[in-house]
Amino acid sequence: MKKVLAVFREARFSPGYVDRDRAVLESVVRRLEGDVELTSESSLGHLGNYDVILSMGRLPRTLELLKEAEAGGCKVINSGYAVERCRRSSLETLMRKNKIPMPPPSGHDGYWLKRGDAAAQERDDVVYCADLSILEARKRQFADRGIYDCVVSSHIRGDLVKFYAVGDAFFRFYYSDDGLPSKFGNEALNGIPHHYLFDTKALQSDVNKVARLVGIQVYGGDAIVDERGHYYIIDFNDWPSFVLCRDEAAVEIAKLVEE
DSSP secondary-structure letter at 130? Predict the structure, then answer.
């Protein structure tokens, strides 16, 4: 009988999404057989007695504990090493090196400034800047908050597409007007989606490629599709809430555990 530990994410990493993030992990747990324990990442101690750990955790201490468990032979989903590679600045470098479609660093429609040292925890961690002077002012505000690791990309006009995936077997995407809740309201800048035609299989292929490079199994993110049908991946993160496909995703995640 497998002994499984499921770890909820620290609330600061789920701004406005605490219940939704918790719900997807609970949905997975309901589908598992065996001895399953649930806990918060702030309560973690030694992790040497489990066969499988399902973790949404992001705290540095959590990742160190997960890596220790992996070294001891435990199966961890998502790997502590993989979650570390999802650090925005590291991911930016990895994606550009491997020619993943991304917005260029500069353009004609403004800029996005994002903290690069961790996932967004509040509205001011991801900000739109209409021009270079505002961008520099915002960088100074980041520095005043102790954030020096930042990522800058140009703003792309087009449809916002949010994607969710589990390994290579499960992939879903939705437009911003499909009923998705918003964390910070930034989607409004792109307006109502036009549903521009694009190569969905190519997007899935590139998303899966990023996941393999990172070594992650449960993941999601955002892309922009412009009027020409070109897509640009603007965000990639570990273990999203799977809001509109929660139960479908939970079945696939549970399969990872059983396999």
Answer: S
pLDDT digits (tens, 9 = 90+) for 157-210: 999 999 999 999 899 999 988 877 766 567 777 888 999 999 999 999 999 999
Strand 150-154 and strand 126-129: pairing? unpaired
AA letter at 47: L
71-105, pLDDT tens digit by residue? 999 999 999 999 999 999 999 999 999 999 999 98
What pTM was computed for the model? 0.91
Q: Tell me the Cα Rg of the chain.
A: 18
Give the separation between CA 149 and CA 130, rounded to whole angstroms. Answer: 21
Given the DSSP bridges, would you call strands 3-8 and 35-40 parallel, antiparallel or unpaired?
A: parallel
Structure tokens that stand for 98 in this block: 């491997």
Q: What is the 3-state secondary structure (H, E, C) of 43-105?
A: HCCCCCCCCEEEECCCCHHHHHHHHHHHHCCCEEECCHHHHHHCCHHHHHHHHHHCCCCCCCC
